[in-house]
Amino acid sequence: MRLELGNIFIKNVKFGESTKIEDSILHINKEELLAAVGGDEHIKSIDVELAHPGEEIRITPVKDVIEPRVKVEGPGGIFPGMLSKVDTVGTGRTHALKNIAVVTAGKIVGFQEGIIDMTGPGAEYTPFSKLHNIVVVAEPADGIKQHEHEAAVRTIGLKAAQFLGEFAKNIEPDEVKYYETEPLLESVAKYPDLPKVGYVYMLQTQGLLHDTYVYGVDAKKIVPTLLYPTETMDGAIVSGNCVSACDKNPTYVHQNNSIIEDLYEKHGKEINFVGVIITNENVYLADKERSSNWTAKLTRYLGLDGVIVSQEGFGNPDTDLIMNCKKIENEGIKTVIVTDEYAGRDGASQSLADADAKADAVVTNGNANEVIVLPPMKKIIGSTEYVDVIAGGFDGSLRTDGSIEVEIQAITGATNETGFVKLSSKGY
Amino acid sequence: MKSIIITNNPKVLKNYEDKYKVIFLEGSYLEVLTTTRDLVHKGHELLTHPLSGSIKPNETPYKSIMISQNKEKLNMESLMIIEDSIVTATKFINIKKTPSWPEKVLEDFKEIDYTLITSGMDSIEG
């Protein structure tokens, strides 16, 4: 499976008379965008605002971040099973609008978290502060249930990204990257001397506000299975996860997974990157046992020499992570786990809720309990009404001058467990 | 598998008391965990993960956990998981106490906890 990814670097985003891309500037006719995403009976009103890097803007609570993309050649369309039909994606050509994102904001439940500061110390912790953000704020109709609200806002975000992506279809990309994964036997024949490496991609899947979708399927209902890595680049995996802002994977991260990018970088040179095994993180312990048994079974079946496992979220996924690691190691396969830590404010406490001696190669993406003071911003998109009570906030978090003292777990993407972060890990 | 729900969430009690044996506690998140631990010591098996959901233990006041109705000899894996969960929850609660929430937010937390335990049941019942 081979995908050409045409990257179009956008320098600025402006509202204008018509929606178009001209001289690397995206002009958006707000009415056209609203018409493309509107119409859901569960939503009373939708507004769109722009937030540029360096502006004194705080976006909160952030639900999802999505990169506009469009399928130019090859089967299927962006976000298969959600907006497009369920054709297998990941081949042909796709265009991506870089440096911009659709951000969905607004509270779905009272304690919802997720802060993107576009400037100041908080901006240093989130990769999304460097993007020109098209922020969609949707107000729910009266009396709708939380799950209807979540589904409506999720779809509005995807539709906005699809609508904007369409304008990239006939633009000549600034850069074209090629990603190719051959069927397993061909790949092994082609690189007989390279170690075979796979990626076990754990998806948060527990229920309301904790779900992820693969080709439209609620991933808590899957057993672990294989994807070509390029399928993720066409939006095969979509986030419905609104909880644990710092270490959930927004859709943007699924589209731009940095572990997949880095494995492709080394593919055919140092390693043979043979594919992705997706698995879930369920509530029921028997599901955790079954899924980790299956990931281990698949790694062995593929004849892998090494595996990288990434986690999503906090707490019980630590158990899935350790089960995956232990069982894959027990197959004789070298395993590296990628996670983050809740090690207390001083960083000295035990980091994970589970552990095993086999987990002897660990990459951390930061301590989510670390405290930061976010200075006041001139403009708030969304609401800071509940900052006192979001994860990582505490009584008195929101000060009278508008500054916020919080743990970095409140910042969207601060300790993302695929390494899509601003923090870095050092070995000593 | 026949199971028992240990919960401090009135919504879980209301929706499942006819179908399951429910141990309802008028207590804290941590008390649900320690009550579960005591039952694990008596030979019940843990069926759902005590830290289900990525909502932090010092954020939500509600917790529901399923254990087996059958008692066998002590299940070490269950014990390790519940003990590690108590350590993690205590760590968070020592950093800051769960806030006093407005009623509307409490309703949201009840709903989330209820859907998480329901997703566990869906797995059991297939």
Structural write-up:
The complex is a heterodimer of chains A (428) and B (126). Chain A has helices spanning 30-37, 146-166, 184-190, 229-233, 251-255, 258-266, 285-301, 317-330; strands at residues 2-9, 12-15, 20-22, 25-28, 43-51, 57-60, 62-66, 69-73, 92-98, 100-105, 116-117, 132-140, 175-180, 196-204, 210-214, 217-218, 225-227, 237-241, 272-281, 306-310, 334-341, 362-367, 371-374, 379-382, 404-407. Chain A is built from eight helices and 25 strands. The two termini of chain A are 40 Å apart. Chain A has one domain (2-177, 184-410). The model of chain A has no long low-confidence stretch (mean pLDDT 94). Chain A has a six-stranded mixed sheet with strand order 17-19-14-20-21-22, with helices on both faces. In chain A, strands 8-9-1-13 form a four-stranded mixed sheet. Chain A has a four-stranded mixed sheet with strand order 5-12-10-7. With 428 residues, chain A is α/β, with parallel strands linked by helices. In chain A, helix 7 (285-301) packs parallel to helix 8. With 126 residues, chain B is an alpha+beta fold. Chain B has one domain. A four-stranded mixed sheet of chain B has the order 2-1-4-3, sandwiched between helices. In chain B, helix 1 links the parallel strand 1 and strand 2 (21-24). In chain B, helix 2 (29-41) packs antiparallel against helix 3. The relative contact order of chain B is 0.22. Classes of the chains: A alpha/beta (428), B alpha+beta (126). The interface between A and B is large, with 49 and 41 residues.
